[in-house]
Automatic annotation (TrEMBL):
<dbReference type="GO" id="GO:0008360">
    <property type="term" value="P:regulation of cell shape"/>
</dbReference>
<protein>
    <recommendedName>
        <fullName>UDP-N-acetylglucosamine 1-carboxyvinyltransferase</fullName>
        <ecNumber>2.5.1.7</ecNumber>
    </recommendedName>
</protein>
<dbReference type="Pfam" id="PF00275">
    <property type="entry name" value="EPSP_synthase"/>
</dbReference>
<dbReference type="GO" id="GO:0051301">
    <property type="term" value="P:cell division"/>
</dbReference>
<dbReference type="InterPro" id="IPR001986">
    <property type="entry name" value="Enolpyruvate_Tfrase_dom"/>
</dbReference>
<feature type="domain" description="Enolpyruvate transferase">
    <location>
        <begin position="7"/>
        <end position="431"/>
    </location>
</feature>
<comment type="pathway">
    <text>Cell wall biogenesis; peptidoglycan biosynthesis.</text>
</comment>
<comment type="similarity">
    <text>Belongs to the EPSP synthase family. MurA subfamily.</text>
</comment>
<dbReference type="GO" id="GO:0009252">
    <property type="term" value="P:peptidoglycan biosynthetic process"/>
</dbReference>
<dbReference type="InterPro" id="IPR036968">
    <property type="entry name" value="Enolpyruvate_Tfrase_sf"/>
</dbReference>
<keyword id="KW-0963">Cytoplasm</keyword>
<keyword id="KW-0132">Cell division</keyword>
<keyword id="KW-0573">Peptidoglycan synthesis</keyword>
<dbReference type="GO" id="GO:0008760">
    <property type="term" value="F:UDP-N-acetylglucosamine 1-carboxyvinyltransferase activity"/>
</dbReference>
<dbReference type="GO" id="GO:0005737">
    <property type="term" value="C:cytoplasm"/>
</dbReference>
<dbReference type="InterPro" id="IPR050068">
    <property type="entry name" value="MurA_subfamily"/>
</dbReference>
<keyword id="KW-0133">Cell shape</keyword>
Length: 443
């Protein structure tokens, strides 16, 4: 693993360009495999997760070629195999997104189970349940899901809990099933609208008739198309929080203003200053004091889970006590122990201990067996952080370690910075360009 040294205390100043989001690009790359004609994607981020999917598409026989910065040309006409290799497919849960185009072409697909670095399979029960409700047969062994669409039919699906990737997978599966499939309580994530736009541009018929209702009429021919991948909303949030905690002044370009509403509402409540101009936002802070405010983590259009760790760090720099209640996941506070080692005052509580009603959006969590989860972070601030030796093991909140190091007194040594390279384009380089003092261990 690669290691960097970060010296805290420098305000971030300047302009930064947000890359396209992998959350959109990965599903669009899979959807492109429906077509025997070229599908061109613009604003595709160049990172490990994207490169690994390019390799997977090529191994299956498909085309995936870079044609300039951020421009990717894809074509599924050459696909000859319905089995994703185990070594490739087990690295990411998003490998399941390749199943629908393979089902369209072969009527069957063999997709490896996603395994973490500890080789423990991550739950994908919602996706499997959705497939089975439409007559898709799913069998499995220790390493693979064996999927068949021979008996699949269109129908009505009601999600108990909105699920981003399940909505993606269902849209792509329904895209080729005869008849209409109606998805109720679908995810409202903005990246899903990229998928809808691409499938429609390829000749499909998908309509979001209401915020959480999507109707899909199946077709049997998909043509070539082109689409620009939307900006990465989480990357924008990270730079915005970095500007505030370092008392900097940063212009963040290439943002989607509509999806930033929950963030700027939060900023307004703590007293932060920002200014929109077209597709950019300017964030700055001098010596003004921020006021702590409670925050609820919820699916879109709420304050989404991917922003939770950065917001919690920001609250440690605000005056007073705040409660961050995650109603989506039960396991997204793994970074707290490291922040507390650096000097933060964060206490992990059960909702009832904070006078709140417990909401568990993770249907794989067994409340009866495990009891009420610890899903509330109580922050007390403002605090001064000190440099520490840190290890990034989870990309979902790896960036918060870097942000904390930027404001810590002294130097921090961060191991595993390459984990972030899988999911964000040129992250440390962009921070350096804003004035962050980051260098490799040997420099």
């Amino acid at each position: 693993m690669s290691t960097v040294i970060i010296e805290g205390g420098s305000p971030l100043l300047g302009t930064v360009q947000v890359s396209g989001t992998r959350n959109s690009a990965l599903k669009l790359m899979a959807a492109a495999m429906f077509s025997n004609d070229d599908v061109i994607l613009q604003n595709v981020p160049k990172m490990d997760a994207i490169e690994d999917d390019i390799k997977m598409i090529r191994v299956l026989g498909g085309k995936a070629d870079w044609a300039g910065a951020g421009r990717l040309i894809l074509n599924g006409s050459g696909i000859t195999s319905y089995e994703v290799p185990l070594e490739m497919g087990s690295k990411y849960r998003t490998s399941l997104l390749m199943a629908p185009p393979l089902l369209f072409r072969f009527g069957k697909a063999s997709i490896p189970k996603y395994k973490t670095r500890l080789t423990v399979p991550r739950p994908v029960n919602r996706i499997l349940d959705v497939w089975r409700s439409l007559g898709v047969v799913v069998e499995e062994d220790e390493d693979y899901y064996f999927i068949s669409s021979a008996t699949a039919v269109s129908g009505h699906v009601n999600f108990k809990i909105p699920s981003h990737m399940s909505t993606d997978t269902l849209i792509m599966t329904a895209a080729f099933l005869p008849g209409e499939t109606e998805i109720n309580n679908a995810s409202e994530e903005c990246e899903i609208d990229d998928l809808i736009d691409l499938i429609n541009a390829m000749g499909g018929d998908v309509v979001r008739s209401e915020p959480r209702v999507i109707k899909v009429n199946g077709v049997n021919v998909f043509k070539g198309a082109s689409l620009e991948v939307q900006p990465d909303k989480t990357e924008a949030v990270i730079y915005a929080v970095a500007a505030l905690i370092t008392k900097g002044n940063v212009v963040i370009k290439n943002i989607n203003r509509n999806v930033m509403v929950p963030l700027v509402n939060f900023f307004t409540k703590i007293g932060a200053r920002y200014e929109f101009e077209q597709n950019s936002i300017k964030i700055w802070r001098h010596d003004e004091e921020f006021q702590a405010t409670n925050l609820t983590i919820a699916p879109t259009p709420g304050f989404v889970p991917d922003w939770q760790s950065a917001a919690t760090l920001l609250l440690t720099q605000c005056s007073g006590i705040a409660y961050v209640h995650d109603t989506v996941y039960t396991d997204r506070f793994g970074y707290i122990k490291d922040l507390n080692r650096m000097g933060a005052k964060i206490e992990l509580l059960k909702p009832s201990e904070a006078g709140m009603i417990s909401v568990v959006g993770d249907d794989t969590y067994d409340v009866e067996r495990l009891g009420e989860p610890y899903t509330v972070a109580k922050t007390t601030g403002p605090v001064k952080l000190k440099g520490e030796k840190l290890n990034i093991t989870d990309f979902r909140y790896g960036a918060v370690h870097v942000l904390a190091a930027l404001i810590a007194e002294g130097r921090s040594e961060i191991e595993g910075i390459d984990v972030l390279d899988c999911y964000m384009e040129n992250f440390t380089s962009k921070l350096k360009n804003l004035g962050a003092k980051i260098w490799g261990q040997q420099e």
